[in-house]
Amino acid sequence: MDKILTVENLKLYYYTSKGVVKAVDDISFSLKKGETLGLVGESGCGKTTTGFALLKMPTPPGRLAGGKIEVDKIDITPLSETEMRRNIRWEKISMVFQGAMNTLTPVYTIGKQMLETLQEHREMDREEARKRIEKYLNLVGLSADVVKRYPHELSGGMKQRIAIATALFLEPKVIICDEPTTALDVIVQAQIINLLKDLKEKLDLSFIFITHDLATEAEVSDRIAVMYAGKIAEIGTNEQIYGEKGPCHPYTRNLLAATPRLHEKVSTLSFIPGAPPDLLEPPSGCRFHPRCPVVMDRCKQEEPPLIEIEKEHMVACWRCKK
Amino acid sequence: MSEKIIEVKDLQKWFPVRRSIGQLLRGEHRYVKAVDGISFSIKRGEIFGLVGESGCGKTTTGKLIMKLLEPTGGVMLLDGKDVTHIEKEELKKYRRNVQMIFQDPYASMNPRFKIRDVMEEPLIIHKLGEDREERLKMIEKALKEVKLNPPDEFLVRYPHMLSGGQRQRAATARTLLLNPELLVADEPVSMIDLSTRAEILHMMKEVQRDLGLTYLYITHDLSTARYFTDRIAVMYLGKIIEMGDPDNVIDRPVHPYTRALIAAVCEPVAGKVNKAKIVPIKGEIPSAANIPKGCRFHPRCPYAKSECIEQEEPKLQEIENGHLHACRRWKEVIEESRV
Question: What pTM, to 2 d.p., does this model score?
């Protein structure tokens, strides 16, 4: 299958007064056409930062510190901010931000806010723009008359649909969704998940789906990349991560064991002791070693590389072999 | 001491809505019926879960139990004693018995206070402990209870120096200081990372077992409710629509709403990615200012018949040992789902 996005050795560092925080530290992955790739991990592991890095808009004091990003066969790494804004962002790759439903301005109608996004990018007369807005609202399952409404008149689910419609506007190939279902109720969550699956098919899109919840990831992502402390710990297909054999990296295994299952009555859930490390001074060797239940001497000194243990299944752990 | 620590009967909380001049002149009243007649009791030493979507009235119920809100109607009994309308000294005593663990451990502690001061405040308010030294001993004991070891190290820290999990432990320790009997925990883990969520629930369970506490656990998350509680009540638009032990409610749900909630939950298992999720009910929860007539779930219910709209609202009925539901067409619902 064709690759729509490739990332090689991507680094995004925050240059703070206390030192350099390596939030995303040398990660590589690719996204195939028509695929959903999940990014999971605890808070502070670099998932959202990776999302922003892909759009080349790090939050200051963050800066891209190296690596190569290719979107739809265009190397976007050397592009200037103007070129990014004009030709790449929202045109090729767009993002549904975390809490996007709360970013709508309360004082303008939905229609005005959507029009603004559209006119920023395309020269379009009102009638044409109106038609396009209508088309995308229908695509996300809303009726066209929401354009006259104000954000407070809409429910969380409806606002999330508007955020998704806005991300689709300029027909991008890749959409990054950052925790799109987190603040929603379960039934609305399921509706949004179905909507994303439906859009993927209809518009031939590829998704990067960022969440902390392994259960949601199991329902939406074809492949899953598990991040820990700015690195990819494991990457594999849905079957390789959630199947009978299960993942290989101790972090993924423990994270999965800590996820409660609805139809299984267990007396104790396991958990991962401690907290993710301070990225100003990451631990030596494997970054997970202070919390790892199966740590060896080697883990404390040498950092394990991300190696392929079977087709499409890559793990960075000294204990996982082919 | 009665077996039931707390009992509520037909408890109501209606919030008045601002009216237009026309409505004022006509003498019309409008209310948001956040809690609209619920009855349940919690046994001593039990963990009782209240689940539902946002806007279903679960948090309002928690606040009523905490006596942060005055009920509009109904009766509340603590240890068999009527506590529906109490004031001043009695209220202070009540609050010592019933404590709350809040959702956000980042907001429930004063950032300018050290943990020692955060914890000492309730003791001072309730005039517990002779002097500072005795109070410190009590605080240390509570910190040990929630496994914040060694306690003296945590005493001098500020809240921002603690991780989310440690903060929620400290918040729990603070409530334990007053030796409460009932703890109201409103989404205590929803803001905590998944990896530590289980750790906090585990700690709360341990403390409950050690000290013989009773919990009212309020959550939107059915999966943790399954793991954590002894009994679950599902709320919809201000009413309890199904109640029973977790095995019954989650594995053998009766009410179409409970069924829909359960079908919508994501599970970390393979082979689901290529299928659409089944969402048997339409739309979103309606406003509590405008509750549908008849069964309040009927506009969204796939099983609704004219009787559900025309006849009065179904009451909770028992199907088997302590498993209650409020659905008129439950037989058909079970029958149809079997086919």
Answer: 0.89
